[in-house]
Every structure is written in C-alpha cells, then in structure tokens.
Specification:
5-stranded mixed β-sheet; alpha+beta; 10 helices; 7-stranded mixed β-sheet; single chain
Length: 344
C-alpha cells in the first residue's frame, strides 16, 4: 500500500500547494488588522469570486484568473480556452451564472495573440457567454493572459460556510483525458456544448434549491489543496478517506503497488479538472446532492467528514475492512495554508 507520509510530503512540496501559499502574503497586505494604515476590503478574501450584494437579495460575482507564462507560451490556444473555462468554474462554484467575459492580453506579435483569442472565443461559444472586450498589447516581450468574468448568483455557495458535521463531497467529470504533459484533466474541449452549459448550471441550482451553501472548485492545488482552502476559510478541519476519491479508469486503486501506480495517483491528486468541485453539505442533503450529479453522468462521492478540530487528517485503507493508515496533512493552528492568518 502507498506510504501515506511520503505522499503527504510530496503534496506539500508541490507547485500547486506553493502557489496557494503565496496568496497569504498578498492577503496580509489587504487586511487592515495586520497592515497598519491599509483600508482593507469590504468582503472576506478566500472565495472563488468577489461577491457583492446586488441590492435585490442576490449577488454580483467577479472572478479573475491569470495564467502562468510557460503555459501561455507552450499552448496558446488551450491557454486562452482554459482562462475562460476556469473563471466560469469559479462563478459556478459560488452558485452563480456567468454574464460576460473580458480579457487582458500581452503578446510579442499577432500570431500568438491570434491563438490566444481563438481559444478564448471557442470557450465563450461553447459555454454560451459573450466576450465583451478587454485590453490588448501586441508589443510585449512575452505572452501573458488574464481573463475576468462577471456573474450573478441568487444564493451563494461560499468557502466560509462549511460546518462541523458536514459531509465532504467530491464531484468530478471523469469523461475526459489528460492534456499532456500538464496535470490538466480535460473533460471540456471535446464535450457537447449543451452538456457543458447544463453541467455548470448544476451548481447554482443546488444553491437555489437550498441543498448546498459551502464549496469550492478544484483548482491547480488539486483536490486536497482545494480542501485545505475551503476548510481554512471556514475555520474547520476534516477527515478525508483517500480510498473514496473518484478517479479516472487509468488511475489504479490504492491497493496497487509500485512507482508507476504511485505516480499516477499523485498526478490525479494534483490535477486541475475542467469540471471538479468540493462541496461541504449538511448530512440530510448529501444523498440528494450526489444524485443530482449522478443524473448527469458526473462522479460524486462522499470522501469524508468536516470536523470542529482545525486539522486535516488523511486515511487510507478504509475500504479494505482492515485498520486504515492515518496521517495529518495540515494543522491550521500551527501553520496557515492560504489565508496568511492562523486559526485561533
């Protein structure tokens, strides 16, 4: 069986975890409690979007993503597509529906810009969201891209609403393939456009029907890094059973041994899926939420419980009926993950 401590060490050293840790330094600069003279922000930082009351009981949502430069250079079309897709996922993760897309693009010439724009246009067309404008510079030293999406939610799903006793659900579209050599699970570019739009609409429907108010989309920190962000924002912890995480058919189960099996599982744990969410759901609603995803062919599994203790424990071997391994992934009382502020 996998060495759980070695797996945890590898996750903690990963690029995805490191990028999320960098956010803490920025958030401290926006927090008036830690930066004398700073004005602070009106809304808490840590959600997938800024959420601003619309004055009518709903929320205006604003999401933005910047892509790492090596990705833009190597795959400009897919970078453009992904920049739109990840923002739409952020809006859905907060119970919203997208309204419009804008971009800021830098390129050393028209050729690369054309590929980036083509990717953005393809994603906007497939998801049915207009690209309404942006900023363009075709005389930059290198390609860079940031995309923002405006959305609207009637009821919110938030990173700050997980409660002790909740069930932690992982929903992910496994009808895809790896976008080599990156840890991107692509279930979007070849899927029917109508299915993409209807799948995204699942999240706001869950919020509006009162089935879920806490969650986050799975980001470049992977499923476990995303769980850390959600739990830290809510001031809670969790016990997560690795055996229960849904996975593609090409990723072996945890009983398989060897370096290849370990590498495949590590890649999946670090993957950014084009459709993937962690939801913290009241126990009475967990089955109903899982059925909504299953009805659309999307894998959804109960992977653990949210706890009052501000630690995240991983277990392995529960499904074999024996004594499982257990180890700590993170202790928020000892170290922060994303927020830059330790739990009390």
């Amino acid at each position: 069986m996998t060495d759980l401590q070695a797996l945890i060490a590898s996750l903690r050293a990963s690029r995805g975890f490191a990028h999320k840790g960098d956010i803490g330094a920025v958030l401290r600069r926006l927090d008036p409690a830690t930066d004398a003279g700073a004005a602070g922000t009106a809304m808490p930082n840590g959600d997938d979007c800024a959420a601003l009351p619309d004055g009518h009981g709903g929320w205006q949502l604003l999401a933005i993503e910047g892509l790492v430069q090596d990705f833009v250079q190597a795959w400009p079309w897919f970078a453009g597509y992904s920049a739109v897709m990840v923002n739409l996922s952020d809006v859905a993760a907060m119970g919203g529906r997208p309204v419009a897309v804008v971009d800021a693009l830098w390129s050393p010439g028209e050729a690369q810009a054309a590929e980036l724009l083509a990717g953005m246009r393809a994603a906007c067309e497939r998801y049915g969201v207009p690209l309404v404008g942006g900023h363009t510079n075709l005389r930059s030293a290198a390609g860079q891209l940031a995309v923002a999406v405006l959305g609207h939610a009637r009821r919110l799903i938030s990173s700050f609403a997980a409660r002790p006793g909740d069930r932690l659900l992982m929903a992910v579209d496994l009808r895809g393939h790896w976008h080599d050599p990156y840890p991107f699970w692509n279930a979007s570019t070849e899927a029917p456009p109508a299915r993409l739009r209807e799948d995204l609409a699942l999240l706001p429907a869950l919020a509006e029907d009162g089935l879920c108010d806490a969650g986050k989309d799975i980001s470049m920190a992977g499923a476990l890094g995303t769980a850390l962000m959600l739990l830290e924002c809510s001031g809670v912890g969790a016990r997560i059973a690795l055996d229960r995480l849904p996975r593609p058919s090409g990723v072996p189960d945890w009983r398989a041994t060897g370096e290849a099996a370990d590498a495949a599982r590590q890649r999946w744990l670090s993957a950014f899926p084009s459709f993937g969410y962690l939801l913290s759901v009241r126990p009475a609603q967990a089955d109903a939420v899982a059925r909504r995803f299953a009805a659309r062919g999307i894998a959804c599994e109960d992977i653990g419980a949210v706890t009052a203790e501000k630690r995240v424990l991983l277990s392995l071997g529960e499904t074999d009926g024996g004594t499982p391994q257990e180890a700590g992934l993170w202790d928020f009382a000892v170290e922060t993950f994303m927020t830059g502020r330790r739990s009390a």
